[in-house]
C-alpha cells in the first residue's frame, strides 16, 4: 500500500514539474500574439476612444473632455442617413452572398464526388479572392460603363435604344462589386460545415421518405447554421467597414459610415472621425455578439 | 442513390456554378484583354489594335507615380508580414493546445481583430503614432496594421489544425525517447507544414493587397494598393489596366508557387 502510494507520488513529481514548464511555455508561446494585438489593436482603440473626447482645430488636437464630437455626429441628420444607407448595403449584400455562397458550397459538398475535384473547384473559387480588391473593383468599369461591354452588347442586339445609366456609379454597382469581393467569405465557412455533415443522415432522411427539399430544410440547413453564422459575421463586418467600394462604384453618389470617416480624416478632423469610429465599432460589436449567441465559433474550427 | 432525381438538381447547380465562376473571372479577363489595347485605344472595348504600349508606359517613371518603388515596398512588407504571421500563429496555436490563464480573452481579442473595421484600425494606429511623435512608415505602423488582419486568420487556421491533430503522434515520439524539441522538429512540424505554407500565403497576399489599413499608416511612401488607388482617380488611360494585369499575374504566380510547395510537401510525406 505505502509502496504503491510512494510510487504514485514519484510518478507524479516529474509530471507536475513538467506541467509547470509546459504552462510557462504556453505563456511564452502566446506572448507574441498578445503583444502585437495589444500594441496594434487594443492601444489604438484606446487612443480612438480617448481622442473622440478631444477638441481640435485645423492644425492640431487639444486634449480635453468634451462631448461635442458625439453631439455633432449623433445630432446630424446626415449621420443617421449614412448609417441607414450602410445597413441597407449590409442587408442586401448579406442576402445575396448568402444565397450564392450557400448554393456554391452545397454544389461542391454534395454534388462533386471526388475530394480532388472538390478541392480544385474550391481553389478556382478562391484564387480571385487572393488578388487585389481594388483591381477587381475597377475591372467592372469596362464591363458596366456607359460604353461598356454590357451596354454595347445590348445596343448591338437591338434590345435597348440607349445605354443603361444605372449599371455603373449607382447603388446597384456597389452591391454587385461587394458581392464580387465578399462572396468567398460566405462560401468557405458554409462549405466547411457542409463537408462535415454525415452523408448517412441524408440517406436516412431520404429512406424515411423525405423529398430533396425536405432534406434540405430539415437536415442540411439546420446543420449548416454555424457556417452561415460565421460567413454572416465576415460579410456584415466587411460591408460595414467598406468605404472604397462605395466611393469608387457609386462615383461619389452614395455614402457609408467608413467613407464619412475617411472624409473627416482627410480634413484632419480626427476627433470627429474617432467619435464616428466608436459608434460604428459599438454597432458592429453588437451585431457580432448577436450572431455569436447562435454559434460557438471555438467549437466550429 | 437515385441518379435520375439527382440528375436535374445536379445540372441546374452546375449551370449556376459555371455562371458564378464566370462572374468571378469575367471582369478580370476584361482588364487583361484591355491592357493589350493599341496606343490610341481607350478605357473601354473595342480594342484599337493590339500592343504592349501600356506595359511599356508602366515602366516610364512619369506615367504612373512610383510604380517600381511602391511594388518593392509592398513586396518587402508582404514578406515581412508573412514571416511574422507564420511564426506568431504557430506559437499561438501551440499555446492554445494547453490551458493558460487568459486563453479565452486572447482568443476573443484575435476574433475582435477580425471584426474591427479596418479603417478604425488605420485611424487608431495613425493617430497613436502621431501623438507619440513617431512618423508613420510602411515598415513600422503599416506593418503592425497589417498584422492585425493577417494574424487572426493565421491563428484561426492553426487553431483548426491543432483541433484535428491527435496528440498520440507526439506521445509515441516521446515514448521512443525523443526530446520535446526533436518531437516538434521531426514529428509535429512535418505534419503541419502544408498548413503553415497556407498561413504564409494568407499572410503575404492579405498584406500585399491591403488598402484600408495602409491608408493612415504608411507615411510618406505609398504601398502598391495605395498607388493603384491613386491611379484610379487620375489616370484615364489603359496603363491602369496594364498595372492591374501585372499585379494580378504576380498574385497568380505567388498562389501557383504556394500550391506547388504544398503538393511537393504532401508528396514528400507520402513517400516517407
What proportion strand of chain B? under 5%
Total helix count of chain A?
Answer: 15
Average pLDDT of chain B: 87
H/E element order of chain A: HEEHHHHHHHHHHHHHH
Q: Quick one: overall form of chain A?
A: globular
- Radius of gyration over C-alpha positions of chain A, nearest whole angstrom: 26 Å
The quaternary organization reads as heterodimer
According to CATH, the homologous superfamily of the domain at 66-234 in chain B is MetI-like
CATH class group of the largest domain in chain A: Mainly Alpha
Sheet with the most strands of chain B? none
CATH topology of the domain at 66-234 in chain B: MetI-like fold
User: Secondary-structure element sequence of chain B?
Assistant: HHHHHHHHHHH
Judged by helices, strands and strand pairing, the structural class of chain B is mainly alpha
- Annotated CATH architecture of the domain at 66-234 in chain B: Orthogonal Bundle
> What is the CATH topology assignment of the largest domain in chain A?
MetI-like fold
What would CATH call the class of the domain at 66-234 in chain B? Mainly Alpha
Based on the coordinates given, report the CATH architecture of the largest domain in chain A. Orthogonal Bundle
Strand content of chain A: under 5%
Tags for this model:
heterodimer, A: 301 residues, mainly alpha, MetI-like fold, 2 domains, two-stranded antiparallel ribbon, globular, B: 272 residues, 11 helices
Question: What would your notes on this structure say?
Answer:
The complex is a heterodimer of chains A (301) and B (272). By secondary structure, chain A is mainly alpha-helical. Chain A has two domains: 1-51; 71-300, Orthogonal Bundle (MetI-like fold). In chain A, 76% of the residues lie in helices and 1% in strands. Chain A has 15 helices and two strands. Chain A has a two-stranded antiparallel sheet with strand order 1-2. In chain A, helix 8 (171-182) packs across helix 12 (244-250), helix 10 packs across helix 11 (212-241) and helix 11 runs antiparallel to helix 14 (270-292). The relative contact order of chain A is 0.12. Mean pLDDT of chain A is 87; it is low at 8-15. Chain B has a domain at 66-234: MetI-like fold (Orthogonal Bundle). Chain B is globular. Chain B has helices at 3-34, 53-59, 67-95, 103-115, 118-132, 141-163, 168-175, 180-208, 212-215, 224-234, 239-271. Chain B has 272 residues and is mostly helical. Classes of the chains: A mainly alpha (301), B mainly alpha (272).
